[in-house]
Design a protein that fits this description.
The complex is a heterodimer of chains A (about 425) and B (about 160). By secondary structure, chain A is an alpha/beta fold. In chain A, about 30% of the residues lie in helices and about 35% in strands. In chain A, strands 1, 3, 5, 7, 9, 10 and 11 form a seven-stranded mixed sheet that branches. The relative contact order of chain A is 0.11. By secondary structure, chain B is an all-alpha fold. The chains are: A alpha/beta (about 425), B mainly alpha (about 160).
Chain lengths: ~425, ~160
């Protein structure tokens, strides 16, 4: 994708070397005045002449920059190829630098010293190791006189955003316990008979029923043709809430790693649920809070992945606002509520427990203390386990170690529970 | 390979200049001057540009002493030589960390052109000033040059916006 040609902003300034030249000239003048001897003034002559002739040899030019970025969406760990073309109206010496806000340049260089004229092309590859948003550009072209006593900086083009999306992992086998279902076929058991896999009941044969559905035992017992009915499997709505408010308890790098794991899990769940035809929404709690109403399809998946790419840990908005105010607004009653949170404080667990009567709640808790030693971490882990046990009485809780497969942890957590209100 | 050769040539030329300026100079001045090629060579090789300024600052006392004791013309030419070698070292330092797409060769030509023009005018100007020097009051000369420097500063600020 090419960025359109946009006008360049120009600024001229004296460089540090230019200031040194001036300071040296003034220093020699002062020295001559102090010594009352004009002989040191002879040293200012070549200084002034070099500066003067250098200024005269600087041409007036106009600069244009075009950038071509291979793609604007990559998965974390992939590379993006960038081509930068710089042209000027006359030959000029320039330093060209393209801004890469995150990641690292692994092939080629994003900067160069070049003789501009017909056109100069820079090609490089940026590796985006972590998920996030990388801004490429704007490009800076610095022209100047031959001695670089002053320089003209051209800032050209707008920044192009490249999203490094979270890596995906296996998310099948989690199971949904929602009792609210939509009209489209899906994977969630509804309360209707239809074409599914789970047994629903037996009824008398009606014209058009398939012969393979005949229940011969019931037929023999009752003396009339009986067929099996299956539970209709349909789609449901799901809201995924990702909690990235993790300040204070963990060191900075580990918080980043944990949030990456949460984003990856949320992305994988969203992909799996959307592929099954469900509507999926998203609520993020982090440096920037964001929410997406449940919807179908590819566009919704892209919006979710881009939102997760932007997720950063930070001072969160109160979680009860997200849970109590937004959830009823975004999610139909008895639909699926999935919370991804490390469960580091009781307030979070209480807020989630309040939703259990109205929704089918699934909590997937990445364990931030897995493999750690130290009395302080053990105490925190004990507190976390106690919160999980309390929460486990009202909803399904999956204790997950980031890096291990989710389906295995989900199987240990047992079958999905429908909402308490629906069970009654 | 070319960079290393250029760095070595610049360092040798600077050393030769230092040796010439150190003749008859007091020991501290001579020592500073003779040690100044080291930061210059390091700057050209590694890209640490502030070391070029350090090398020039170490050379400056010897230059000032040469202007006070010796011929005006020779001291002006020595200053020009020091400026030219420092500019070449600065150019090499700038190109140490970024790929060069025809920049260094063209920049070296332009710096050399500036130095050559300056050499021609310096030789003429200092020779003429030696003729004029006796009737000219040094304080008047200093005041005129100070005014010129302040004008240059004002112009530079104006360019910077």
């Amino acid at each position: 994708m090419s960025s359109p040609r946009s006008p360049c902003r120009r600024a001229t300034r004296l460089t540090a070397k230019g200031r040194l030249y001036l300071a040296l000239a003034l220093g020699l003048l002062l020295l001559a005045a102090v010594l009352e001897n004009f002989r040191p003034l002879a040293l200012t002559v070549p200084l002034a002449l070099m500066a003067g002739f250098s200024g005269l040899l600087h041409p007036k030019v106009e600069v244009r920059v075009e950038r071509e970025v291979e793609r604007s969406r990559v998965v974390a760990g992939e590379r993006v190829r960038v081509k930068l073309r710089v042209r000027s109206s006359a030959p000029a010496l320039a330093e060209v630098r393209d801004r890469v806000s995150r990641g690292s340049v692994v092939r080629g260089s994003s900067g160069a010293l070049a003789l501009l004229g017909g056109g100069v092309e820079l090609e490089y590859e940026a590796l985006l190791e972590r998920r996030g948003v990388c801004e490429l550009g704007p490009a800076r072209v610095v022209l100047g006189d031959p001695l670089r006593l002053w320089e003209e900086e051209w800032v050209c083009g707008e920044a192009v955003e490249v999203y490094a999306l979270p890596k995906l992992q296996a998310a099948r086998g989690v199971g949904l316990g929602a009792s609210y279902t939509g009209v489209w076929p899906g994977e969630v058991l509804s309360r209707r008979s239809g074409r599914g896999y789970e047994f629903y009941g037996v009824r008398e044969y009606a014209r058009g029923d398939e012969l393979r559905r005949v229940n011969w035992k019931a037929t023999a017992r009752l003396g009339r043709l009986m067929v099996n009915e299956r539970v209709e499997e349909r789609v449901t709505d799901a809201l995924i809430v990702v909690d990235a408010g993790l300040l204070g308890l963990l060191p900075g790098e580990e918080v980043e790693g944990l949030v990456d794991a949460e984003a990856s899990l949320a992305a994988s769940l969203a992909l799996h649920l959307l592929r099954s035809g469900n509507r999926v929404g998203l609520v993020l709690r982090g440096r920037e809070s964001l929410w997406l109403r449940p919807a179908f399809g590819r566009r919704q998946l892209e919006a979710i992945l881009c939102a997760l790419a932007r997720l950063e840990p930070g001072e969160p908005a109160p979680l009860d606002y997200a849970l109590n105010m937004l959830t009823p607004y975004l999610l139909k009653p008895n639909a699926e509520f999935i919370a991804i949170t490390p469960l580091l404080d009781a307030y979070v667990a209480e807020s989630i427990a309040q939703l259990a009567p109205r929704y089918s709640v699934l909590v997937i808790s990445p364990n931030p203390f897995a493999g750690r030693r130290g009395a302080a971490y053990r105490m925190l882990e004990v507190e976390r386990n106690s919160l999980m046990v309390k929460l486990g009485r009202v909803c399904r809780v999956v204790d997950w170690s980031p890096g291990s497969p989710l389906p295995r942890a989900a199987r240990r957590a047992g079958r999905p529970k429908p909402p308490r209100g629906a069970r009654a | 390979m070319k960079r290393r050769l250029a760095t070595a040539l610049v360092a040798l030329a600077w050393l030769a200049l230092s040796a010439a300026l150190s003749l008859g100079a007091p020991p501290p001045v001579a020592l500073a001057s003779l040690l100044s090629p080291i930061p210059l060579a390091v700057a050209a090789a590694t890209g640490l540009r502030p070391l070029v300024a350090l090398a020039f600052a170490a050379q400056l006392p010897a230059l000032v002493l040469a202007s006070l004791r010796g011929s005006l013309l020779l001291s002006a030419l020595a200053m020009l030589a020091a400026l030219y070698l420092a500019e070449v070292a600065d150019l090499l330092a700038r190109s140490a960390r970024l790929p060069d797409l025809g920049y260094v060769r063209e920049a070296a030509k332009r710096v050399s052109a500036v130095a050559a023009l300056s050499l021609a005018v310096t030789a003429g100007a200092t020779a003429a000033s030696e003729q004029l020097a006796p009737p000219l009051d040094p304080r008047v000369a200093i005041a005129l040059l100070l005014a010129l420097a302040l004008l240059a500063l004002h112009w530079a600020r104006g360019e910077g916006g």
